Amino acid sequence: MVNKEIEDYMDEYSSKEDKLLHQLYRETQIKTYYPRMVSGKQQGLFLEMISRMIKPLNILEIGTFTGYSGIQMAKGLQDGGKLVTIDINEEMETFAGKYFKLSGLQDKIDFRIGNALEIIPQLDMKFDLVFIDADKEQYIDYYELAMEKLNTGGFILADNVLWSGKVLHPEKKTSKSNKADKETKGIVAFNKHVKKDKRVEKVIIPIRDGVTIIRKL
Ligand SMILES: C[S@@+](CC[C@H](N)C(=O)[O-])C[C@H]1O[C@@H](n2cnc3c(N)ncnc32)[C@H](O)[C@@H]1O
Questions:
Q1: R_g (Cα) of the chain, nearest Å
Q2: How many whole angstroms from 64 Cα to the centroid of ligand 1?
Q3: Helix intervals (H) in 64-209
């Protein structure tokens, strides 16, 4: 949501990206079909910072992909804490698994392959931080399931809530399939849902594609 010049400036005056994450980012660009899905440097540093501020005992991530955001958030865990990260795509198991090992955080990471909508209800634990970053059509469902597992005072971060600005004109038809349109509708519906939700307070941060920080009252 910021122009390239500003993004470069932000990069220059923020902490450096760690070498392993840079390697993960590069490999994601080369070896995956949708490399744009990876959080990347600025958002990764943001997630790490938020996690270090909260010092969560447990984190839930919905949408692991290649593991970038998971590794960044796991750095803020308390001793004995866990990141449960879920991805429906079994091809991610080897990719993300390799980087979880290389990060030295493997013991703190519980990586599950499957549908988050089925796995979350089975989790017998509570979370202090949840990152929602899977398919956009189901954001409200992920959110409601996550709320059940979130401690009072806990936080949900929802990614892509500005959806490249398409939230401003959700009725606009896309030139390709109507898949993108469904995703826009999903994000717009999610933003309205959170706006109305009296159980939480919230603020949208225009980093990368927009992240809502939501706190459970
Ligand atoms: C945007 S990517 C996640 C990016 C990652 N969090 C990062 O920042 O680097 C979305 C991921 O969600 C996964 N996904 C989609 N639907 C899912 C579902 N129902 N349950 C679990 N994972 C799902 C996809 O396979 C994909 O890898």
A1: 17
A2: 5
A3: 68-74, 92-102, 116-119, 139-149, 179-196
Q: Number of folded domains in the chain?
A: 1
* Selection from 118, 136, 120 nearest residue 184 by Cα: 136
CATH number at residue 74: 3.40.50.150
Q: Is 116 in the pocket of ligand 1 (CB under 6 A)?
A: yes
Q: Closest Cα to residue 126, out of 145, 107, 102?
A: 145
172 has a pLDDT exceeding 80: no
Mean pLDDT of the chain: 95
Provide mean pLDDT across the span 114-121: 98
Identify the pLDDT of residue 83. Answer: 98
In the reported structure, the alpha carbon of residue 62 is separated from the centroid of ligand 1 by a whole-number distance in angstroms of: 6
The residues with which 84 forms a beta bridge, in sequence order, are 60, 110
Cα(123) to ligand 1 centroid in Å equals: 18
Which of 47, 89, 163 has most ligand 1 atoms within 8 Å of its beta carbon, as the pocket-test mutant? 89
Q: Can you give the residue range of the structural domain that contains 48? A: 4-216
pLDDT interval class at 174 (50, 70, 90): low
